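Repro:
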Amino acid sequence: MPRSKSQESRPAFPLTTKLNQRLVAYATAASAAGVGILAAAPFAEAKVVYTSANIPVFSPYGWADLALDINGDGVTDLTFFGATFAYGTYLKVYAPAGNGIAGANFNASALKWGARIGPKAAFTSKAQNIASAGACHESTCSYRGPWDNTQGHFLGVKFVINGEVHYGWLRLNVAKRPYHSVVTGYAYETIPNKPIIAGAESGPEVVGAIDSPPSTAPSRQPATLGMLAQGANALSFWRRED
């Protein structure tokens, strides 16, 4: 289509250096803001899976050999074992290689509600003592172990799912005589390497989302270059209706 005379005679106005620098700065800021939002916004599905239980650790026959599968994938994550004998009882727990029990000096830690279970805790797969009663004579015994006569304490564990480490807990009631011990519940965190709080039975379905800043703007504003440079953070202001 041929150009009109007015179009041909329209003078060109080149951008000044200062204005050009400002436009470049606005574009750079807007781009950086957009990239920042994209980098910070990924959603990570995080969930604590809890199972209520009432599982006696010892069998009626006076021995303990209880294998637990915490996440239900058909793989044993830890095993309780023990026995009763003429003058006492003992109860211990161990984990397969790659898994672990929170503890030290061959004693499984009796954690209280709210304890943090994660990568910074000390874990071992070797057999750890829960509690024992020995040298019993008539109605007296010598009781030992960190779980001696405790109710509602937590055993910290780590175990592998599809090659990745997850953290969890088991809640135990350990009677004065350990053969009355019961597992009353257990839970684990679905995000690999994410710590869990002892006693937590639920968690946020989604973590990592960006909270939008509160908006107090009274009316819709024009989409200026300044607002564009703020990226997605400015959208809540611009879209607000009167």
